[in-house]
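Example 4.3 (complexes with small molecules)
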Amino acid sequence: MPASGSDPSGQSARDLTHHLEGLVPELETVLAATASDQELEAVRVQFLGRKGRLSGIMSELPKLAPDQRPLVGQIANQIKSRLQALVDQRLSRLKQDKELKVLTYFDPSLPGLTAWQGSLHPITLVTEEICAAFGSLGFELVEGPELETDFHNFEALNLPPDHPARDMQDTFYITENTLLRTHTSPLQVRTMLRKRPPLAAIAPGKVYRRDSDLTHTPMFHQIEGFLVDTDVSMTDLRGTLTAFVHKIFEPKTVVRFRPSFFPFTEPSAEVDISCMLCGGSGQSAGAPCRVCKQTGWLEILGCGMIDPAVFTAVGYDAELYTGFAFGLGVERVAMLKYGIGDLRMFFENDVRFVSQFA
Ligand code: DAH
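Answer. The structure with 3,4-dihydroxyphenylalanine bound is encoded below.
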């Protein structure tokens, strides 16, 4: 058998096979340097494309002696498959790398970010606590509009037009007859107009006054409470409010009723509680108590026996019925209860402050 011989162009089967086999390591080297799908595609075209390296070598095939062509053709097909496999391998490797890169800035093994725990505002907490305390004593929860009429806010509460007591409250008037309620006391009027005695209600809400300084804000929160029946006396008022104070503050807190004046109650009183910082001594840590300013007492609410004029305004028989009422400022109670020194904290919405009450 003649050795696989030469042909007229000088290309032997051996040369072609050698060239074909040389494509494999060459492609490996070039592939290793590809970094993107686009680069990889360019290399694929360069080696396997219609005018690529493999085709170039294959175009020499006809120059071989006919008996040598099938063998070299077979080798060429094997090389083609190997080249294609190398390109596919590189493609999946690049894909893996891409995923790995994503993983380097998204590390699923890191601990998760803690979700913010929401918390109720201390004003909401105290309001709910006070309403629940009276709810457990049988008081019904009532609410009413912040935009009030002069009648509900003043007149029916024994504050007729030109009554000097109206100067006690600086009012946001909307029209001559409508205003932002200056207290929650109009809820007494609204409830009594709607219901006959016996009744007991607790009424929380926002109130508005033209006041703004270190210790006053134009909007603040009050809670009104009232009870009407036959034979209600000041004793009932004392007992109810004392029980309330002992629910909200320490049971050892001392309660004091001090005579006062409100147009819608007669007699009227203000309620003081013994100072929770100094225990009523006026001295704290050997210094004058800063919370009660050395008096030993803290004022927490106004109250009294409902004035017969209020009953008359709502169409109740003032001879038959008696009742008591009280009103307190929620911010003040919250400041005392939680030892908050600055009223503005309630309105700044600093999450660090609010979240302490979670
Ligand atoms: N409405 C009064 C105020 O805003 C508070 C108040 C005092 C309410 C005495 C009452 C009461 O019901 O009896 O200052």
